[in-house]
Design brief:
It contains 10 helices and 10 strands. It has a domain of about 170 residues: Rossmann fold (3-Layer(aba) Sandwich). The radius of gyration is 17 Å and the shape is globular. The chain has about 240 residues and is an alpha/beta fold. A hairpin with a 2-residue loop joins strand 1 and strand 2. Helix 3 runs parallel beside helix 6. The structure holds adenosine-5'-triphosphate (ATP). The site of adenosine-5'-triphosphate (ATP) has 12 residues, from strand 2 and helix 1.
Length: about 240
């Protein structure tokens, strides 16, 4: 579904990503872990169309989207929960969700939940605060709104950048539960995280990133052995 081939990207003359290549298939959760400054957010920005790779290709559902702007990618079913959440802070939750809901409906794609009630049961705070301006919500509540917006788009691929960053353990638990519930609904999910223990709980397989490169591949079911590999954890994941 998502295929990244030898992507290089950076900021002006500063190269960050070097020959990044990996894939995400339908119905799997792929984790990408790495320490601060590894280039995880830079990669997500390149996937979202916010940063143009200097070389390499990004293919989604069989076609090359490397040069496509972000809104086209969203229209085709690539949904992102970015680290800054990218919500309109002065608008209410309902207003923030309306556009995604309309885009999802027009796409003709299937909903990932049987109905919106099921989605809001999983994200109760969204329903409770539906008429509240986003700027009055806590960071965790805003994260839930960003997730709801991504899912209302009826995505085929969901990319989440550091979903646990700065959030209380209870909210993180909630996000994990939601990811488990999304399994088996035809969506490919890429979760980019510094917290490898969290990824190990939810991802089927994954990759370790360091200094702009993929340095290790974690096969299906092998997260535990990664966590037990002191040399790897120490070298790339900060001990
Ligand atoms: N807008 C920018 N302009 C210049 N350099 C940047 C910019 N954003 C990030 N960088 C640099 O790119 C490198 C990778 O940063 P990036 O934010 O992608 O890493 P990360 O793995 O997401 O780390 P973190 O978990 O701390 O967010 C770092 O050296 C960073 O200083």
């Amino acid at each position: 579904m998502l295929e990244i081939e030898a992507v290089h990207a950076g900021y002006g003359a500063l190269p960050v990503l070097e020959a990044i290549g990996f894939h995400v298939e339908e119905d799997e959760v792929v984790g990408l872990v790495g320490p601060n400054g590894a280039g995880k957010t830079t990669l997500v920005r390149a996937l979202a169309g916010l940063l143009r790779p200097s070389a390499g290709a990004i293919r989604f559902a069989g076609h090359d989207v490397t040069a496509e702007p972000g809104h086209r990618r969203a229209g085709e079913g690539m949904a992102f929960v970015l680290d800054n959440r990218a919500l309109f802070s002065e608008l209410t939750v309902r207003q923030n969700l309306a556009l995604a809901e309309r885009m999802g409906r027009r796409s003709g794609r299937l909903k990932c939940f049987s109905d919106d009630a099921e989605l809001f049961d999983l994200l109760p705070v969204v329903r409770e605060r539906i008429d509240t301006p986003v700027q009055l919500l806590s960071g965790g509540q805003q994260q839930m709104v960003a997730i709801a917006r991504a899912l209302l788009l009826r995505p085929r691929l969901l990319v989440m950048d550091e979903p646990s960053a700065g959030l209380a353990p209870l909210i993180v638990k909630h996000i994990l539960e939601l990811l488990h519930r999304l399994k088996g609904r035809g969506i490919g999910i890429l979760v980019v995280e510094q917290n490898v223990r969290l990824i190990a709980e939810v991802a089927d397989r994954g990759y370790v990133m360091s200094l702009g490169r993929l340095v290790h591949e974690v096969p299906r079911g092998a997260w535990r052995s990664l966590l037990e590999d002191e040399r790897l954890v120490h070298a790339y994941l900060g001990g």
